[in-house]
Write a structure and sequence with these properties.
The complex is a heterodimer of chains A (339) and B (236). Chain A has 339 residues and is an alpha+beta fold. Chain A is 32% helix and 19% strand. In chain A, β1 and β2 form a beta hairpin. In chain A, α2 crosses α3 and α6 crosses α7. The radius of gyration of chain A is 23 Å and the shape is globular. Chain B has 236 residues and is of the alpha+beta class. Chain B has a single domain, classed as Aminohydrolase, N-terminal nucleophile (Ntn) domain (Glutamine Phosphoribosylpyrophosphate, subunit 1, domain 1, 4-Layer Sandwich), CATH 3.60.20. In chain B, the strands form two sheets. A five-stranded antiparallel β-sheet of chain B has the order 8-1-2-9-10. A five-stranded antiparallel β-sheet of chain B has the order 3-4-5-6-7. In chain B, β6 and β7 form a beta hairpin. The chains are: A alpha+beta (339), B alpha+beta (236). At the A-B interface, α1 and α2 of A face β3, α2 and α3 of B.
Chain lengths: 339, 236
């Protein structure tokens, strides 16, 4: 390796993605003028000058080639504004077609000290995008001596999504969700993206991924201004529960393996992961308040009188509502046994 | 460029070295020393925004004296190199030794082949996982690398300052003691240096992944008064 030295007219400045491209390592084509998606990424690189990671077989007849294998995607990620900033959450399941590819994937990442990025879409390009995004923010901060503004960070991510458009058209869509604490304005802010790099600021909340719609509805019904940390975590966890309930590609809490969705808070103190034990407790609270349409009426272990060898399928649900319905159900079952 | 008259290589090199040394010597000096939990870098610098000491990577810091635009370009190149290397391999694979060698090669090359040598001296420091594993590399204008494991001084009167530091140095000293001795070494007790005129930064093992931290003016004053600020001990 040699020390990268750029002549004054060709200095990439604080842009790490650009440095990568100058030196021939860039996975995402440049999005700037003249750097349209599909531009060759490295001298003597991949045939067709594709976006550098995969070449998808396809003729030169202008048709979009078909995706040659099953792409890993399907997810629920969400971000909710609360009193101290923003809460981000995401499930842990990665799927490949109908198969579960990975059970412990992390989809919510710290982008830097005061912002986080969650990802939905094709796992490979998405993880690479997160990695480059994190490096880009740190690189800028080191070269310039101060961090980018929150808007600047959101804009950077937008350019990376846009640069991925070629891949997106071949089926490798990456849709991130960006949220952070704006230190200059002292508030949490949320940005959403579309596959072409469009960037939209949300005022209160957003959810994305295959279960995003269910999660959004749940958050919409439960959202209040200035929620406490616990209320905010409960709302995110409830949204993930509902998404996992309706969407096969979204994983719910896995009490058997001890895998719980990722939840993180971003406040003036920075990005902080909510401990798994606390997320598990939040699920306990949420499950205890589910409607009778959602909870099995003959739930056995929620009743103290139930036989000890009956399996406990409800996890931590011991609280009022569930117990009441379960008691009724047990009573009815006992009555039915009577001759 | 063609040479109108013959100049002996010895004379040519000596002229270049004199030129570089003279201009570096005019700059204000800088010292670096290890302390119990990391590496301290302390520079005389009255500017709040044009830094002499900066972060390169997780455990690596950079400092330079001499011509600002020249050492700043070296700094940015170092950041680019380190970030690319960490991206290509792993964050653990980025180390000060290889970076110091790259700097040395570049500066040596410029000294030999260009008309004008770089009028800078730079420092690359790395904090180790354990005390005793810290590394300080001092690279001169002609690409000479000096490997130090306790302390070094750059810039004008570097030899005198190093001698003063050598007298004061104690192994495993605290940040406050190290900073007081560093300032004492810079001034020689002949003049006062207020916290306003100092640029102080540390690479501290307790700072998490990114060990680099600038010590703010108020904290410098606290440390010079012999108090270890609570925030520093908490590693925040």
């Amino acid at each position: 390796m040699t020390l990268p030295m750029f002549p004054p007219g060709h200095d990439p400045g604080p842009n790490f993605n650009e440095v990568l491209h100058r030196l021939g390592f860039g996975p995402f084509p440049e999005a700037g003028p003249g750097g349209a998606p599909g531009a060759p990424t490295r001298a003597g690189g991949l045939p067709g000058g594709g976006p550098g990671m995969l070449t998808v077989p396809g003729g030169g007849d202008g048709r979009v080639p078909s995706v040659p294998f099953q792409v890993t995607h399907g997810t629920t990620i969400c971000a909710v504004r609360y009193g101290d900033g923003v809460i981000m959450a995401g499930d842990r399941r990665a799927t490949s077609g109908s198969a579960i590819a990975h059970r412990t994937m992390e989809k919510v990442h710290a982008a830097d000290t005061h912002s986080g990025v969650a990802i939905a879409g094709a796992a490979g390009p998405a993880m690479e995008m997160v990695r480059i995004f994190q490096l880009q923010l740190e690189h800028y901060e080191k070269v310039e001596g101060q961090a980018l503004s929150l808007e600047g960070k959101a804009n950077q991510l937008s350019q990376m999504v846009r640069a991925n458009l070629g891949m997106a058209m071949q089926g490798f869509v990456v849709v991130p969700l960006f949220a952070g604490y704006d230190l200059r304005r002292a508030k949490g802010r949320i940005y959403t993206y579309d596959p072409t790099g469009g960037r939209y600021e949300e005022t209160d909340y957003h959810a994305d991924g295959s279960g995003g719609r269910d999660a959004r509805t749940t958050i919409k019904l439960g959202f209040r201004d200035d929620m406490s940390r616990e209320e905010g975590i409960d709302l995110c966890v409830r949204a993930l529960w509902q998404a996992a309930d309706e969407d096969s590609a979204t994983g719910g809490p896995d009490a058997v393996r001890g895998i719980f969705p990722t939840v993180a808070t971003i406040t003036a103190q920075g990005f902080e992961r909510v401990p798994e034990a606390e997320v598990a407790q939040a699920f306990g609270r949420v499950i205890s308040t589910l409607s009778s349409a959602e909870v099995n009426r003959t739930l056995p272990a929620a009743d103290a009188d139930a036989d000890a060898h009956e399996p406990d399928s409800a996890g931590p649900s011991k609280a009022g509502a569930t117990k009441a319905t379960a008691s009724k159900a047990t009573a009815a079952r006992k009555a039915a046994k009577q001759p | 460029m063609t040479m109108p008259f013959y100049v002996a290589p010895e004379q040519f090199m000596k002229d270049k070295a004199d030129f570089a040394r003279k201009n570096i010597g005019r700059g204000r000096p800088l010292v670096a020393t290890v302390y119990s939990t990391g590496v301290l870098i302390c520079a005389e610098n009255s500017s709040r925004s044009l830094h002499k000491v900066s972060e390169i990577y997780d455990r690596i810091a950079f400092a330079g004296v001499g011509k600002y635009n020249e050492f700043d370009q070296l700094r940015v190149s170092g950041v680019q190199h380190a970030d690319i290397k960490g991206y290509q391999f792993s964050r653990e694979d980025v180390d000060a030794r290889s970076l110091a060698n790259l700097y040395a090669r570049y500066m040596g090359n410029v000294f030999t082949h260009e008309m004008k040598p770089l009028e800078v001296e730079i420092l690359v420091a790395e904090v180790g996982a354990q005390p005793g594993e810290d590394q300080i590399f001092h690279i001169l204008y002609d690409g000479t690398v000096v490997d130090e494991d306790r302390f070094t001084a750059l810039g004008g009167e570097a030899e005198t300052i190093t001698a003063r530091l050598a007298r004061a140095y104690r192994a495993e000293w605290s940040l406050s003691e190290a900073l007081k001795a560093s300032v004492q070494a810079l001034t020689g007790g002949e003049r006062e240096l207020s916290s306003r005129e100092l640029e102080v930064a540390v690479l501290d093992r307790g700072n998490g992944r990114r060990a680099f931290r600038r010590i703010l003016e108020a904290e410098v004053a606290e440390l010079l008064a012999g108090r270890e600020p609570a925030a520093l001990e908490a590693g925040s």
